[in-house]
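Changelog note: in this version the structure field was regenerated for every chain. One regenerated record is shown below for reference.
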Amino acid sequence: ASGDNKTSQEVEQGLLQMPRDASGHVTKWLRLRDEYLISKAVSITCEIMKRLESVDLRLPEDSTIYVDDVLNGTVKTRLSMSQKAELRRALETHIGVGSEIEEQSAAEISKPQRQGSLASWITSGSGTTDTSSASKPKRTLDMETWRAAANESALKKAISSASPTAEMLKARGDFAKKSVLPTRTPIAQQDPNNFRLKRQQEQEAKRKRDLAAIAAAKREGGSGLQGIGLEGKDHSTKGQGVMVSSDESSDDEDDQLDAELFGVKPTKKRANTVKSDAAGAIGLKREQRNQPVRIERRVRSAKDMRARLAPDLAPLHKTILGWDFFYEGDYPPNSKDWQFQKVANSFRHVADYQETFRPLLILEAWQGFVKSREESSFKPYEIKVVNRSSVDAFIEISSSVTHAENKEIQISESDIILFSMSNNPTADAEADHCFAQVYRTRRQKQHIEVTYRVMPGSNNSMMSHLVPGSLIHGTKVQSITPLEREYGALLGLQYYDLCDEITKARPSPLLDYTDKQLAPIVNNYTLNKAQAKAVQSAVQNDAFTLIQGPPGSGKTKTIVAIVGALLSDSLSDKQLGSKIEVPRGGTTFPTNTTASKKLLVCAPSNAAVDELVMRFKEGIKTLKGVHRKVNVVRVGRSDAVNSSVVDVTMEELVNKRLGSTNNDKQAREQTQQLMKEHQNVSEQVRLTRAKLDSGEVKGKELSQLQDQFNALRNRKTKLGTQIDNAKDNENSAGRAAELNRKRVQQSILDDAHIICATLSGSGHDMFQSLNIEFETVVVDEAAQCVEMSALIPLKYGCAKCILVGDPRQLPPTVFSKAASANKYEQSLFVRMQNNHPEAVHLLDTQYRMHPDISAFPSAAFYEGRLLDGDNMAGLRKQPWHASDLLAPYRFFDVQGQHQAAPKGHSLINLAEIEIAMLLYERLISDYRDHDFKNKIGIITPYKSQLRELKQRFSGRYGLDITESIEFNTTDAFQGRESEIIIFSCVRASATGSVGFLSDVRRLNVGITRAKSSLWILGNSDSLMRGEVWKTLLDDARDRNCYITGNLHGMLKAHSSKFPAKKTPLIKHSKVSASNGSGGAKQNGSTGVTTNKVQGNSTNPKKEADGQKIQKEADVQAMEGVRVKLEDKLASMRTKKGEEDVDMVDAESARSGASTPTVNNEPVSAPASVASGPAAKPKTYLLPTTTTPQIIRKRKKPADPFMPQPTRKPRKD
């Protein structure tokens, strides 16, 4: 076997000998001026080095030297930073030399290294330092240093072992033998006591110098994020070394040295000493300041930036291509459950982070393939193998598909294809099959060239069939583009600027502001205090800022205000995009490129991104109150975005800049005309030759025929030349068009202020240029994406990331139950919140829901901290609220059973569909003057129920009903709202659980979409088996919002037969700061608000006059709701305490029209509205159908685990 392998290697070496000999000419191409040819020269050179290295061959010495000179600038070229980084990586891999050189901050570059121990001090001689070496950044591949240290240079050894290159280099004088270390002076003998005294004096002098330097830095230093931040705020470049002094950072080492010299026990130094990155990150370091958090930027080599932007994905491809499509199992083939670890709240090192997340990422990818297999929506197609070759560790298969065929199957790069010998690949497990990856596609005139990659080996049964000329079958399984981007982000994490913050899950702390400090933000952007505080902190803090936005709390408005504040400085300049210098590493790569200062705004879904784009298109307001239009670019396919933002997509903007393509079309038509004429002339030449060869033509006619033949042949030759020239022109035009398109894309990005994309879309190849960075990233719906997705947009030099989301709403979608059990579905937002719950900004006022709707979610999901905006009851009042059936909040107890859907594993409930139709009929019949178009949303957790709802409504009201009513799933409706929401729960059975209805986050989304009315349809007997649903049902009964009995009879009667009872106006709102009105007092210690409660007067005269009075209560808004819910959840009996107020139902005010129920059954008439259980508890949750009386009681909080507000003394 070894002999065979050796023979095979010798054959490969022989085949590669010619490319090796030609490499000298290829490397000279690196000096070309044409951008397209330069890119090809770089890729060919790198590929040659890679292939030669795989068979133990090396480049000739002259080629190696030339590439080295190109990289060091000795040979002048027009290579970009990215191309040099790619070339350097290939050269290092080729000669077997790695780069294990540590990064160093810009502030540390010029500082001499201190000795850390007595032994090191003794061996240091006089302590002099070679400033020539200290003046260069460590994180550079300094070829000069390698050449100077010839005896220790791994580069020289590698080249010497491969060829006589070293001799040539010596001849050139590049490897002069000289020591990089200075000569050492003898160590002078010193008196230990004098030395100790001298050291103490030096340390005291140093401390005084540092204090002066710190004071100067506070006057002159900025955040390091130049051009971004509060207008008028100083943003001078950092890096003077004050906060990261090597002297300061080595105080502990000084103590260690003192201990060795004098036996003195080291004393503990200041806690704010800057330490090296414990996570192993090659990125930014957090400055140890009190407030706000500042990030010091580091010098970075282009090679590391390349590793961060374009890591090697071959290990991922090998793993996936080795899988069997028909394998049955929850875990990927060849894996065990013990390989998967639970995600920790914090990681000590980036390697631990990667070792935890990599298996979970692969596990989730496998479940994605399993889900694709179950959906069975595959479209097989034929594949004719044109060519086969071995490239790296893969086998490449070349084929083609027609344009018409590709419209049907839609093949693109990074798709996974199932190869099979069966014409129905996904149904025949016995046929030979394997996975293949679409590695490359090239569009041609008549077809698309497709290159596939498969894994070789004896386990691949398809290898014998993958030969040129063979015919196989394939079907697209799924695209792994998002997976590649997540995997790449994970691999490059160690090069991230915020690596340490990510691994440690450490957000920036909350900053404290006075009302006076927040007033400009409040007034300028019309925000409340919580929103203004979030904006101010997001602008002033670097690293991660967490903002939790409950439903309707103005999340999007806050984001727009943040973006406006951050761009204020840039927009104050009369430029489309201010430029900054990108930090580069060392002298190897000159800093001749600049990066545009701009913001990257992302979200997990296209819908969320498009919503932000529409807001940005309207313009933003700067901190000075000036409304400015901004350049917004939406990255993504035009067919996947909202029609209202298509005009700002990158594709549309590029097409506008490039203008019409009629010239290209005319050129192609002319070429086709020439080819058609050439074909006709060729046919005439053939016929004329046949006549000449037949011998039938003689004499003068023969001579004429011969002249005609010669003329035709000349014409054919001329046409052939014209066709060749036309093709060359087309190819040149194609290359020029491609380069021009890239230039236009770069120009658009340079001019843009805001780039918007999905999290996966932010990993697009166009961003992988070193000419652009995004120092600030805003992520909306940050709690609805897995952590790996959130890492993607952070790889472009991000130093400030604002995460906006709500962990109490829907989590990310994760297919693997095992991955979910290991907390893979946990977002980066949630992991940071778990570590530092005190560092989250809560937007505490909602402006969407009627107070009757918001009462339960505020108490159940936000501990009563979510308050209502000013006068929400009045703003959301509607005519149909005059009916008790159509009140703002009702639960309809539908006594029906769910059933399995005809297809799939979903459920439907026909009884709830019927009630939904009756509710809609009641509305449009009784309130004909009101336009309900686009005002009603019907949502359900189950897709089958959604399909059935659409079908039944369309059957009764016509197909146009879907344009008037929005039907959707609960998950898809997150982030949206509607005037009226009908929520169909579906689950209804005598036994069993409530399924994924038990997810409180899904429930929270479902019941917080409505503005004026929320009507829940469900089976109470079934839902009571869910803990949270039981709480909701108890709350609905206690608040008289629960309707049971003959629902069909009630809804078929006119709604006026069930008039709404006179109810108190319960105002549990905190008046927004922007309104400037009172009514809410903010507790400084807990952030809980105390409000005034309004109710109807019990005085008949005042009721007749229609006047309202206010009664002051010493309890925060929602206190009654929260206390009651906590009593139910904890099953505890409340005890009397101090200064609490209970809302107790006035029995005398109960309406006689309502019929009580016992065990959910009406006592008297069936067609009635239930007012709750017969046995009412003494404590109620904001009763809405009775007149309450305020009874002052002394009671303790119901739940000892719930933080309680600190009461301020009353002022009578």
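Spot check on this record: DSSP finds 40 helices and 39 strands in the chain. Residues 845-1193 form a domain with the Rossmann fold fold (CATH 3.40.50.300).
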